[in-house]
Specification:
Structural class: alpha/beta
Strand order of the largest sheet: 16-18-17-20-15-19
Strand content: 15-25%
Shape: globular
Distance between the termini: 52 Å
Largest sheet: 6 strands, mixed
Number of strands: 20
Radius of gyration: 24 Å
């Protein structure tokens, strides 16, 4: 997030797109509710009428996968109606003239023809956001899990640049991370083309720096993504270590994922429970859970937090850092002789420009937001206040493109996936918690009641749900949250493996799967199917 969580209480206008934050980030969402209670306006863009949409002053029910069309239409209105922040644009941006020529073609009427949001509402959203003293954008995986995820984010950046809604309290571009330490994992170098601190591996200076630190020549080429690794499994990749991820349930195109893992000669999994993925492993190392571990997290607002062991680990469980370092030592790798997480964190701080001013002891205060470029720096709760890291912000020229799949006679229904309040991710943890069955005992497919009637389905009926990649059995549940022609399910229940169906495409830049859009059909079950025949 460009702004701290406390800033969520400040916007005059909050624009939430692709984020079901009241279910996926319920604690953070309370801050936005405080802003609404004092009179802030809320714009929500989402295909489903989620709870957040019921709180909105303006709800934009766009068709799944058409965020670019909506955002380009809003940008067109801001330019057309003279709502740009001229001073900000003149002093903080570049490539404006080319962008203005480009955006002129994307009228709100054009956007309406694609995203199915009325042009008048697109205009209203653009005016509210641009005219706000403090306008903030919040988004989550509903923006990024598309083949055009990068395009979506760049369109949001364009809106912030046009209006100057960045670098001030109550403004900003605020992606809310999907899990508790996703930000920290990226900071630490868990990105295939970057060292810790987002230092590109292809830069010669970075190669020299890390070669010296690690005592071996670093490869000058970018690493491969998980998508590529799964495609190469059994061909060029024969062993894999999966740490803390239940790939069999969370990855798209589940059959492909299973086949890739089964083709390996050796699979090692590190996890706190015997997940569906761990059950396929040759070796499973039991890891400690968060309350059993000393270490650090970096959360969605870039705040560096110390976590402290409060519970004695069960059995032979060990922290992830300890397991990985011992594996590395047995492989003969140098510089893995760590005996305490303090040593791991301090090494990262010594190599990362964003963490250079902190260490294990300073992190204990929990007051630092990176970047903290030098010792004595107070941290940076709010990014881009005076300038951007690249100098001036760049306008991006984005074209609309359809999702990887669009509805047709064979697969006439849109499927979108996401999370529910009662279940977390693949349910590996919440599914083992006592009492959770009372909140969500099983998965169901949300279907608009008018579609239930049109498709001759009964609420609670079990049906076949099919895509080009597979078929699953699932109960249907009437819900006005889903628009006509679009159905929804979470991916939390392994006995209702919704990701058997997803995986129609990937963003070409990030290799993020298009988990938010695929096309499906619903078939009634035959009598033999319902009785197990």
């Amino acid at each position: 997030m460009s702004n701290p969580l406390s800033d969520m209480e400040l916007p005059d206008v909050a624009f939430c797109i692709g984020t079901n934050m009241t279910e996926a980030h319920p604690v953070a969402a309370t801050r936005l509710k405080k802003a609404l209670a004092r009179g802030s306006k809320l714009i929500v863009a989402d295909p489903r009428r989620i709870h957040l949409a019921t709180l909105a002053d303006l709800y934009l029910p766009l068709r799944v996968g058409t965020d670019v069309a909506l955002l380009q239409g809003m940008a067109h209105v801001i330019v057309r109606d003279g709502l740009m922040n001229d001073h900000f644009v003149a002093t903080r941006t570049q490539y404006l003239e080319t962008y203005l020529e480009h955006i002129a073609q994307f009228t709100p009427e054009w956007a309406e023809s694609i995203c199915e949001v009325p042009a008048a509402d697109i205009e209203k959203a653009a005016r509210w956001y641009a005219e706000a003293d403090q306008g903030a954008i919040y988004y989550t995986l509903g923006i990024t899990e598309h083949i055009c995820g990068v395009d979506n984010v760049q369109c949001l950046c364009n809106l912030a640049l046009l209006t100057g809604q960045i670098g001030r309290p109550g403004t900003g571009l605020n992606p809310m991370r999907g899990q508790n330490n996703i930000q920290g994992a990226g900071d630490s170098g868990a990105i295939p083309d970057q060292y810790p601190g987002f230092q590109a591996v292809v830069e010669p200076d970075h190669q020299r720096k890390f070669s010296k630190a690690y005592g071996r020549e670093m490869d000058a080429t970018k690493g491969i993504t998980k998508v590529t690794a799964m495609e190469e499994a059994g061909r060029d990749i024969f062993a894999m270590l999966i740490d803390g991820e239940n790939s069999v349930v969370s990855d798209p195109n589940q059959q492909h994922t299973r086949e890739a893992i089964e083709s390996l000669e050796h699979l090692v999994v590190i996890d706190i429970f015997l997940s569906e993925t761990a059950e396929m492993a040759d070796v499973v190392f039991p890891a400690t859970a968060w309350a059993e571990t000393d270490g650090t997290f970096t959360n969605t607002e870039r705040r560096i937090q110390r976590v402290r062991q409060a519970v004695t680990p069960a059995g032979e469980a060990r922290p992830d850092w300890w397991i990985i370092s011992r594996i590395a030592q047995h492989m003969g790798l140098r510089n893995f002789d760590f005996n305490h997480p303090r040593e791991v964190f301090n090494e990262m701080c010594s190599l990362s420009t964003t963490y250079a001013g902190v260490d294990w002891d300073l992190a204990a205060t929990g007051r630092y937001h990176w970047p903290v470029p030098y010792r004595g720096h107070p941290g940076t709760p709010r990014l881009h206040e005076e300038s951007f890291p690249i100098g001036r912000g760049k306008f991006s020229l984005i074209e609309y493109r359809d999702p990887a799949e669009t509805v047709d006679e064979t697969y006439p229904i849109w499927l979108t996936t996401g999370r529910r309040l009662a279940t977390y991710h693949t349910n590996t943890q919440t599914g083992r918690a006592g009492g959770m069955d009372y909140l969500a005992a099983e998965e169901a497919l949300e279907v608009n009641p008018r579609d239930l009637e049109a498709w001759d389905l009964q609420d609670g009926e079990t049906v076949w749900l099919s895509s080009r990649r597979g078929r699953i059995a699932i109960k249907v549940a009437g819900s006005k949250r889903s628009p006509m022609g679009t159905v929804f399910s979470s991916f939390s229940f392994s006995d209702t493996p919704i990701n058997t169906l997803t995986g129609s495409g990937y963003d070409p830049v990030t290799h993020t799967a298009e988990l938010k859009v695929c096309t499906v059909r619903i078939d009634k079950m035959a009598v033999a199917d319902t009785v197990g025949g």
